[in-house]
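Q: Can someone sanity-check these two? First one:
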Amino acid sequence: MYTQLSPHRAQRVDLPGRHGTIAALRAAASGRDLGATVLLLPGFTGSKEDFAPLVDPIADAGFEVVAVDLPGQYESAGSRLEGDYLPERLGADLVDVVGKLAAEGRRVLLVGHSYGGMVARGAVLAGAPTAGVTLMSTGPEALPPGDRRDALDLGETVLRAQGIEESQRLNEVRQAMNPRWASLPEELRDFYRTRFLRSSTAGLLGMGTGLRSEPDLVAKLSRKLRTSCVPCLVVCGEHDDAWSPASQRDMAERLDADFAVLPGVGHSPGTEAPDALLATLLPTWRAWLRP
């Protein structure tokens, strides 16, 4: 079973950020270093640990790995202003991080999962010097109507009125109705609880607003990628319940990007099916790095 607690060789480090330190997991490339760094950005309520099953295989393939908590998530410092957590703002915050990695002589491959994909898009549009972009389980615009959108709306109401602890308590009540939740190890459930409670309230509210209001910037991103000669990959699970695979395929076509659907996988390929995900990611990234 792959989870956020899967073992890996990465070291816990802090990177400089505009609002304080950005918490990260960093692993050097093993064997032949391809001279590229894969910068992994998590989704809403997520963290760097969401990429734990991917760290060692990516490093073993010759890539340096840096997985971060976005500003305001879990162990990263963040702003007190909700507006600073919109994808455009967070993307701009990450330009310096990408720039510092590039200044070390690394070609930076940006990978964003879900909301992290929107942030990756914001970073590219803000001028981050990237050598490739992977959008994973990320849609072209705001989250469409559905169960996830309903849960987001309810969560904001509780968070604003009663605070983060009550929001977490109600979330666990909702999760308790899911048989899969009951089967998770207590250690993992404790991690989810701790991660949520340590996240910034302003960050949760601001990212929630972003998920409900982000405009369709695909055409703008397409122009930026084309003029910068930056390749792009869109990948998602067959059963993604956030943005439909059809909408992500359409986004890929508009971006002139590679597109892959992982059979039998939902919204979180990194923990649901890391082997299948890596079978798509690694060959694509190697192709991008060829002269």
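And here is the second, same format, sequence then tokens:
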Amino acid sequence: MTHSRLASAAALVLSVAVLSACSSGDDTTATDPAGSGEPSGPASSSGVPTPVPDGEVRTSGLVTVLDDGDGPELCLGAVAESFPPQCGGPKVADFEWGDVGAEKAAGVTWGSYALTGTYDGTTFTVTDAIPAALYDAMAEPEDSPLEAACDEPTSTDNTMASPEDMDATLAAASALPGYATAWLTGNTINVAVTEDAAGAETALRKTWGGSLCVTTVERTDADLNEINQELQTTLGAQLLTSGSFTPDSLDATVVFDDGSIQDWADQTYGDGLVTIESALVPA
């Protein structure tokens, strides 16, 4: 029951789109950015900028480096949980595995490292590599958990707050007019609708007396999924992952952004709808 409930409550999180998990970084198209110092990048055939950094960058935390016989690659996106793992990405130059951190199996060598170096759009040239065993994870900020949709969730009847009541309420929420999404924060059910929040709360109180927050948003999950599919097509090999982790918005991680891809996303979809994160950040 617990697993099905959490799966239902996680409707907020769209199926994260993992692209090019095992493709080569050779597919990446890149051109030197303008030298003005302003965030900018040349446009691809789809009109999306394809910037490359003009100085040293580092990975935003630990990443997998893998060599399946064709030389090491930097896995910035998804890593298949096989043994040995499978993944791909930009080629890595001037890299040494070191005395700790690397594993070998079936002709594949891999390990987790925090890397610093330069990136020309196809190859990451390493200037410093810290294996996971020597990496201070506390130095990296933790991802923020999902937040409640309201400051003060309310309860009306705690005798109607069982796991079965929760399942019934999540099912009822998905049938509401204008239903957008739902998620859990602790024992609080959060529901987002595009219309009549008061009416939605009244309907949900028929099955749920526990902690509840109802809010309104502009877009449904279906709307966000449609935009998510567009991002996969237009960003192409630059896109590592994309999905929704907050109501009414999307998060997308690309190999590198100097701000020009974010500007493109704001101009294309409106300010704040798509947040672009860069897997490589200035060192």
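A (reply): Looked at the second one. The chain is about 20% helix and 30% strand. The first helix runs from residue 2 to 9.
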